[in-house]
């Protein structure tokens, strides 16, 4: 029996999520009867999940379990999928875990076992350790760490709930330090930011953008803020003065068609928002 969660237009979305026993779910790659038998054809590129959920509660993100739990996939399935990826000579693997390095033991184990390929990992820089970076360097894979920093500004970090209960100034300094550690080791990494955040100004975004470039990141991207239903920012949008609109034609990058974006705040006009979008587009060229 399948349970369907319905949210009516105008009703409160509590961000309820389907609960499943991840350890018993079948692999999307492999046969139900034989873990050595593939059900998907070989491909040069695969998206791969090693865990589900996120322990953090960023106010803009829907990866928010009510109990802040992260469910791991049983190791026998991970091992079978690692064999599948190697046997099919998959050249590029994007791990879709919201925070791959949340569980350092599992992260290091996977890095030690994966075959030679291009491997992209969504990584929280504050949680980076020397042991994790050792494993990245020693892995057979050519690893790129995707670091969703969002902003380097302490007051903006506080509003988006970056590691609640900690000093936002200390968090900003830790991000700087961890990115420097990654760069020092010669590991490839990317930094992504968000524009349109509460309290953000053109000047504060430009400071974050400058820090992202000074970090030595191989790529810097900036995404416009979207208010996803069920998130804290969505619930507080009127209180924070966040105005949404469909202006995909005004900016040429990172805009999702038919999805509203925050285009105006008390500290950022629509004209300024468009300007930041243009800067973000130029940054990625």
Q: Can you characterise this structure?
A:
It is a single chain. The protein has a domain at 42-227: tm_1862 like domain (pyruvate-formate lyase- activating enzyme), CATH 3.80.30. It is globular. The termini are far apart. The protein has eight helices and ten strands. Helix 2 (104-113) packs parallel to helix 3. The protein is an alpha/beta fold and 285 residues long.
Keywords:
285 residues; alpha/beta; pyruvate-formate lyase- activating enzyme; two-stranded antiparallel sheet; 8 helices; 10 strands; 17% strand
The helix count comes to: 8
Strand numbers in spatial order across the main sheet: 1-4-5-6-7-8
Q: Mean pLDDT, as a whole number?
A: 86
Order of helices and strands: EEEHEHEHEHHEHEHEEH
In short:
This protein has 285 residues and is an alpha/beta fold. The chain has helices spanning 75-87, 104-113, 130-138, 154-159, 168-184, 202-214, 232-235, 270-284; strands at residues 45-48, 51-52, 71-72, 92-95, 118-123, 142-150, 188-195, 219-224, 243-245, 261-264.
Topology:
Blueprint: E1 45-48, E2 51-52, E3 71-72, H1 75-87, E4 92-95, H2 104-113, E5 118-123, H3 130-138, E6 142-150, H4 154-159, H5 168-184, E7 188-195, H6 202-214, E8 219-224, H7 232-235, E9 243-245, E10 261-264, H8 270-284
Parallel strand pairs: 1-4, 4-5, 5-6, 6-7, 7-8
Antiparallel strand pairs: 2-3, 9-10
Helix pairs in contact: 2-3
